[in-house]
Each structure stands twice: as structure tokens, then as C-alpha cells.
Amino acid sequence: MPHPLRVGLVGYGSAAKTFHAPLITATPGLELVAVSSSRPEQVRAERPQLGVEATPEALFARADIDLVVIPTPNETHYPLARAALAAGKHVVVDKPFTVTVAEARALEGAASAAGRVLSVFHNRRWDADFLTLKALLDEGRLGRVVQFESHFDRYRPEVPQRWRESAASSGSGLWYDLGPHLIDQALQLFGQPAGITLTRATLRDGAEVDDYFHALLRYDRLQVILHATTLAAEPGARFAVHGTAASYLKHGLDEQEAMLKAGLFPPAVDWGIDPRDGTLISWRDGQPCHETEPTRRGDYPAYYAALRDAILHGTANPVSASDAIAVMQLIEAGCQSAEEGREVRLASEEGV
Fold it and tell me: Please, where in the chain does CATH 3.40.50.720 lie?
């Protein structure tokens, strides 16, 4: 039986501790071996079994590392991933893939040349509500979808001191933070749109970067709205989806992030369960009919299990570089739209 895939984690910040370390540890066939960190005492206090390297380069040089995971500030994704691939490692990059499409394409080429698996952690493909919605669409229970509205609303009126909130950091702000999640989900459901119109705003007192966005993706006979804000004390529906046969409404965010932050890790008995069911609304005999639609169990561990199989057995990459490039193309096009105050058409429609 082959040895487990040995994993090295770049940095030990919030994303590493909250998401990646617990999910890697919970995945059979993966072994978290070492971390690079400037605060080795913190790592040793929380995970004394791990090796600690002072720099990412030292981590990449270790012969006992097969897979490197990079949950670091966005502007560091490209150089760190490129160096890890050059060292012969398989690589996971947290979302967003990179800061620019050019960087994303360069990494895809580097991974291909190195013969290594390169994947991007778009974990919200495995949200409970998204899995439920995808099943509804696959089963045709809404008919032809004509409007899809996806909200990620929070109430965070105070601006924290971190790189995501700093104008000095490339790829900071809410569009680069939550935009990739909402875009990736839309692309999984509907494919590439014909165009995008984006509004970005900086609304909180003391904010340096955008903390609100509203994006419209234009499809043939379908309108897709992606929206996020940090100033919604009473969030609206997470999903509001309207079709020719029925509508689907779902409130509340997936519970898996909250579970991880609370120290509840898979395979806990209640892992991934969202207690808030959705509502399916149809019309019968001229009257609206409301039915409870049970929410499926969320499954973030499925990402790392699929990645393990892709590396060991050549199965499908759970989130390929080409998938992540498609997201980056919409991120860039959205930035152009917001700057110029117009719809930006996608390159395929322009024949480029």
C-alpha cells in the first residue's frame, strides 16, 4: 500500500488553521508533515507533531513533502506556487487563484511542464445549500431557470487590521475575497456568461478597499446576480432562484466554516448539517404552494479526498487550473466594468 501523501502548509494564519490543517488531517491518505511559519512557537504549541520551517523555500526543499498548500495573502499566490512547482511538488492554492489572469495561465503552464497536479481551493462547491440547489437544477424541478440571485451578506461594521482590508495589498477587498466563491458557483451551474456588469463600493467608515459589490452576469434568457456586503444586519436570502416551474429560496450561510472555527472537525456526527431547510414555491390551481426542501449535508472534506485521488490515481482534479482561470477572467472583467461603468463582454463573445 503506498504511503500517505505528505503535505506541507505554507504559513499558519487564519485560513491555514481554520480550513486546511483540519481538513487535511481528517482525510485518509493525507498526512500533514510540516509548516512554514515565522511563529514556530505557536505551531508547536497547537500541533507539536509538525515540523516547522522558517521559510516557504525551506519547506519546498524537504524531500518528505509531496503536496504543498498555499493559503497566504493573494499577491503571494503566484510566486509561491511557481516555486513549489519548480521544486517538484503538487500544489493547492487558496482562492482567488492569483491576482491576474496572466499569472493564472503562467501557473497552469508551469504545472503542465512539471507534470504536477495544480488545484485551487474553491471549497464552496461543497456548501450544503449549493449541493441542494445543484441537485434541484439537475433534476429539473425548477424548470428553465430565468433568474439566479446569490448573496453573501455579513454584518461587520468595524474594519479589522489585516491584509484583506489594506489598499497596499494587491488583490485585497471583497470582490477578490468573496467574488471568487460566488463566481465559481455560478460558472458551475450555468457556464461562462456573455458579459458582466459590476458595481463596487467602499461603504464602511475607515475602509480602504471595496466592502460591497453587486455583479450582473448576462446569459441568454437568464439573469445572474452576485451580491456581497459587510453591512447587512439582516441578510436576505442566500439563494433566490426563479424558474419556469418553481422558485427556490434558502436563508443562512453554510455551517461548515462556523463548525471549523468552533473546533468541530470532520468526521463529527453532525458535520456539514445545515438546520435551515429551503423553500420550494410553485403554483397549483392558481395558488402558491410552499414546500420545505431539505438541505443536503455539506462536504468540504470531499475536496481533499478528490485531490488525493487525482494525485495518486489520475482521477479528475476537483478544481482544475482551467476552472480557476475562468473565475479569474470574470474577476478581471468585473474590475474593468466597475472602473469604466459599463458591461464588459467576455472574450469568447468578441471572437478573441
Answer: 5-121
Would you identify the CATH topology of the domain 127-299+331-345? Dihydrodipicolinate Reductase; domain 2 (3.30.360)
Give the CB-side neighbour count of residue 13, counting CA atoms within 13 A: 12
Residues 118-147: b if buried by 16+ CB within 10 A, e if exposed: bbbbbbbbbbbbbbbbbebbeeeebeebee
* Element of type H or E holding 239: strand 239-243
Confidence of residue 2 (pLDDT cuts 50, 70, 90): low
Q: Grid coordinates representing 248? A: 427556490
pTM of the predicted model, to two decimals? Answer: 0.95
pLDDT in tens, 31-56: 999 999 998 999 999 999 999 999 99
Using CA atoms in the order 325, 163, 45, 84, what is the torsion angle rounded to 10 degrees?
30
Please list the residue range(s) of the chain that carry CATH number 3.30.360.10.
Answer: 127-299+331-345
Cα gap 275→293, rounded to integer Å: 12
Q: What's residue 350's pLDDT?
A: 40
Query: How distant is the alpha carbon of residue 253 from its chain centre?
Result: 14
Asked if residue 228 lies in contact with residue 244, where contact means CB atoms within 8 angstroms, the answer is no
pLDDT tens-digit profile of 230-268?
A: 999 999 999 999 999 999 999 999 999 999 999 999 999
Dihedral sign from CA coordinates of 318, 322, 328, 330: negative
Where is average pLDDT lowest: 35-49, 78-92, 307-321? 35-49
How many Cβ atoms are within 10 Å of 312's Cβ, its own excluded? 14
Give the chain's length.
352
Question: What is the model's pLDDT at position 168?
Answer: 87
Residue whose C-alpha is closest to residue 124's, from 198, 188, 73: 188
In the chain, which residue ranges form alpha helices assigned H by DSSP? 14-15, 21-25, 40-46, 56-60, 77-86, 101-114, 128-138, 174-177, 179-190, 256-261, 301-313, 321-340, 347-350
Task: State the pLDDT at residue 161.
Answer: 87
> Which CATH code for domain 5-121?
3.40.50.720
DSSP symbol at 71: -
Q: Which of 35-44, 225-234, 319-328 has the lowest mean pLDDT?
A: 35-44
